[in-house]
């Protein structure tokens, strides 16, 4: 399509072979127009600006009067954004549920100031993520909060299940913390499916420094569950836009499509 290019930080969607299964659930791709692309750029820019603001807020030692002035400005800006809001059960206007484009996902969403965001790609069937975490994600002094590590692994492991052709929701996640994860250092996250037993998919994920990928800092073993349409409807209900749970990324599994068609 001619016109404005898509943002480079557009979150990864499910592999192409999953799109047919998603369409079978009644979740259809949206039409990509110049207006949609421009809005996605604006959402991405706002997300970046807010991430920078959050990072500055947790690091700042400015005088009290500056803190109060910035607080007033932040409240005024929040009121402007609140002038037109979607309901929690309505998809964002910039999302494409059928293609797995979720701009406000808390791990990979470029529009979500909570997200680092992690960049994920598929290499030889495995999901590989890259991210550098700053002070907003601090737990122990100078190190990443353990819950953040678990959140990131859950997301990347969800991508791995989808890439292997078994998109599902998280049934169990066991995390082992071998060494503290440092702030401010590029990290490499890797997840791959190890076994498939019917609807149960065994996945393993790791976090390491990008400069030392074989020295695992955190590892996780998970069991993801593929759901039939009726199971997904029972758990998540019908969502606007078609499909249980609003389509891909709608369930607790994170970055993978939440359901597969009934056999």
Give a verbal description of the structure.
This protein starts with 15 loop residues before the first helix and ends in a 27-residue tail after the last helix. The chain has helices at 16-24, 34-59, 64-81, 146-163, 229-236, and strands spanning 119-123, 126-131, 169-177, 187-197, 200-209, 212-225. The protein has 263 residues and is an alpha+beta fold. The chain is built from five helices and six strands; from the N terminus they run αααββαββββα. The longest helix has 26 residues, at 34-59. It has one domain (1-263): Thiol Ester Dehydrase, Chain A. The chain has a six-stranded antiparallel β-sheet with strand order 1-2-4-5-6-3, with helices on one face. The relative contact order is 0.16.
* SSE string: HHHEEHEEEEH
CATH superfamily placement: Hotdog Thioesterase
CATH class: Alpha Beta
Task: Specify Rg, calculated over alpha carbons.
Answer: 19 Å
Whole-number count of domains: 1
State the CATH architecture: Roll
- Biggest β-sheet: strands ordered side by side in the sheet: 1-2-4-5-6-3
Distance between the termini: 36 Å
Question: How would you sum up the global shape?
Answer: globular
Provide the β-strand percentage band.
Answer: 15-25%
Which range best describes the helical content: under 10%, 10-25%, 25-40%, 40-55%, 55-70% or over 70%? 25-40%
Low-confidence stretches: 1-6, 8-21, 240-263
Averaged pLDDT: 83
Major beta sheet summary:
6 strands, antiparallel
Give me the CATH fold name.
Thiol Ester Dehydrase, Chain A
**Beta-strand segment tally:** 6
Helix count, per DSSP? 5
């Amino acid at each position: 399509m001619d016109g404005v290019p898509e943002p480079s930080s557009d979150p990864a969607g499910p592999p192409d072979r999953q799109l047919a299964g998603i369409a079978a659930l009644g979740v259809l791709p949206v039409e990509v127009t110049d207006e949609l692309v421009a809005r996605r750029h604006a959402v991405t820019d706002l997300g970046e600006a807010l991430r920078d603001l959050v990072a500055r807020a947790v690091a700042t030692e400015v005088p009290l009067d500056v803190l109060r002035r910035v607080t007033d400005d932040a409240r005024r800006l929040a009121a402007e954004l609140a002038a037109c809001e979607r309901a929690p059960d309505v998809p964002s206007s910039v999302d494409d549920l059928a293609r797995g484009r979720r701009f406000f996902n808390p791990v990979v969403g470029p529009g979500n100031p909570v997200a680092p965001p992690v960049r994920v790609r598929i290499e030889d069937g495995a999901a590989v993520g890259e991210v550098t975490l700053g002070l907003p994600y601090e737990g122990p002094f100078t190190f990443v909060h353990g819950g953040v590590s678990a959140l990131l692994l859950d997301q990347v492991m969800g991508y791995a299940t989808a890439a292997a052709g078994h998109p599902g929701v998280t049934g169990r996640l066991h995390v082992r913390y071998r060494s503290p994860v440092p702030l401010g250092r590029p990290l490499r996250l890797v997840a791959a499916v190890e076994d498939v037993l019917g609807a149960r998919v065994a996945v393993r994920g790791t976090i390491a420094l990008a400069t030392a990928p074989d020295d695992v800092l955190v590892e996780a073993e998970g069991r993801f569950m593929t759901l039939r349409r009726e199971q997904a409807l029972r758990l998540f209900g019908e969502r606007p836009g078609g499909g249980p749970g609003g389509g891909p990324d709608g369930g607790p599994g994170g970055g993978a499509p939440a359901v597969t068609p009934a056999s």
